Amino acid sequence: MPFMEWSDNFTVGVAEIDAEHKKLVALLNEVYDAHEAGGGHDAVSRVLDELVQYVDYHFKHEEGLFIRARYPE
């Protein structure tokens, strides 16, 4: 069973952002699965590094969209 399941309640209505959010959930589940499988520090660290890099990419992308759209918040 995954740590977190995607729900349509998380949808923001922007296809590319929704896809990125789904990937974030999937990576979070990969970290959890690696830990639960007893993969050890290296396995968990590898997936966690990927998650951290993707979080950085995602928020930069999302913030850029906010700026271009002149989103007030």
Question: Would you kindly provide a written description of the structure presented here, covering whatever features stand out?
Answer:
There is one protein chain. This protein is an all-alpha fold. It is built from two helices and no strands. It has helices at residues 15-36, 40-69. α1 packs antiparallel against α2. The longest helix is centred in the C-terminal third of the chain and has 30 residues, at 40-69. The termini are far apart. The model has no long low-confidence stretch (mean pLDDT 93).
Produce a short descriptive summary:
This protein is 71% helix and 0% strand.
Topology, please?
Layout: H1 15-36, H2 40-69
Helical fraction equals: over 70%
β-strand percent reads: under 5%
Let me know the number of strands. 0
Low-confidence stretches: none
How many separate helices? Answer: 2
String of helices and strands: HH
The major β-sheet equals: none
Shape: elongated
**Global Rg:** 14 Å
What structural category characterises the helix and strand content? mainly alpha
Report, as a whole number of angstroms, the end-to-end distance.
36 Å
Mean pLDDT across all residues, rounded? 93
Please describe the structure with a list of short key phrases separated by commas or semicolons.
73 residues; elongated
